[in-house]
Specification:
By secondary structure, the protein is mainly β. The protein has two helices and six strands. The chain has one domain.
Length: 85
């Protein structure tokens, strides 16, 4: 079931895991629902991920408060795709 925040953001393959209000701004914690990712260099799709880091993205203000999105950034394993050892 999608939440109200999921409906408001309307981002494909993404759900809002939680949020926090800190020092006058709102931070939404997002989770990616798709299993893998496409390589930005060769466009190869893989579910083999090396690591996931978080990035903070400034979004439009809402209700007079700045809004930030904490988005997972997936990094695929280049070794796995190219067959390097």
């Amino acid at each position: 079931m999608t939440s109200l925040l999921d409906n408001l953001l309307d981002l494909a393959e993404t759900t809002v895991e939680g949020y926090q209000e800190v020092e006058g701004y709102v931070c939404l914690h997002l989770k990616l629902l798709n299993r893998g990712t496409h390589c930005p260099h060769c466009n190869y799709y893989t579910a083999e991920l090396h690591q996931t880091t978080q990035i903070l993205v400034r979004d439009l203000s809402s209700f007079g408060k700045p809004v930030y999105l904490r988005v997972p950034r997936r990094i695929s394993s280049e070794k796995k795709k190219t067959g390097d050892k």
